[in-house]
Amino acid sequence: MLPRIALSAATLLLTLPTSAPAFPSDSVTGFVQSVDTGSRLTIDEQRIRLWGIDAPDRDQACLDGEGQAQRCGEIARIALDVITKERRVTCHPVTSVLTVDPAEAAPMRCTLDGYDLNGRMVMLGYALNRAESAGLYTATEAQARDRQMGLWGGVFVPPAVWRDRKLGHR
Predict the structure, then answer these.
(1) pLDDT in tens, 151-170
(2) Quick check: is 148 in a domain?
(3) For the stretch 105-120, what's the b/e string if a residue is b when 16 or more beta carbons lie within 10 angstroms of its beta carbon?
(4) Residue pair 89/29 in contact by the 8 Å Cβ criterion
(5) How far apart are CA 61 and CA 103, in angstroms?
(6) What is the pTM of this model?
């Protein structure tokens, strides 16, 4: 009985499509298909969240250095889109497939032309260090703040706080 089950399982595995999106435990390399926010993108049908950073949602607004309203979430999204346009990005998983909801974007660290893409977004001031990074991007964030890069050139609510308020949490 056991050999028949094993044969059936092997047959099933061989007939599964090979073009399915990568599981979050797999590294992904390719050209970016879409950029949803300054910290979420899609490569080869795999939705990816840039681990360790948090960028404003597309509809989040901020004030620039002159007190004028700006769409900082859209600006962060455009920055990530421009940085990655027509360039190969490689992303490596940070957590196991068991801890990632398949409907969610997989948390990954990505590189582009040999540099840390996640850290680049923080360095440009379009994303903030997240606690999950255990301080990896803290110094980079401080440099962006000191140089008044991106969000730091004006007034903004941290993205996580903004989301909580949007959802009615305090």
Answers:
(1) 999 999 999 999 988 887 65
(2) yes
(3) bbbbbbbbeeebbbbb
(4) yes
(5) 27
(6) 0.80
Token pair belonging to 154: 């004006």
Is residue 6 in some structural domain?
no
Average pLDDT, the chain: 83
Structure tokens at 6: 């094993």
* 16 within some domain: no
Distance separating alpha carbons of residues 127 and 134, to the nearest angstrom: 16
For residues 71 and 9, which has the higher predicted lDDT (pLDDT)? 71
Total structural domains within the chain: 1
Query: What CATH number is associated with residue 138?
Result: 2.40.50.90
Contact 162, 81 (CB under 8 A): no
**Residue 88, domain extent:** 22-166
DSSP state of 155: B
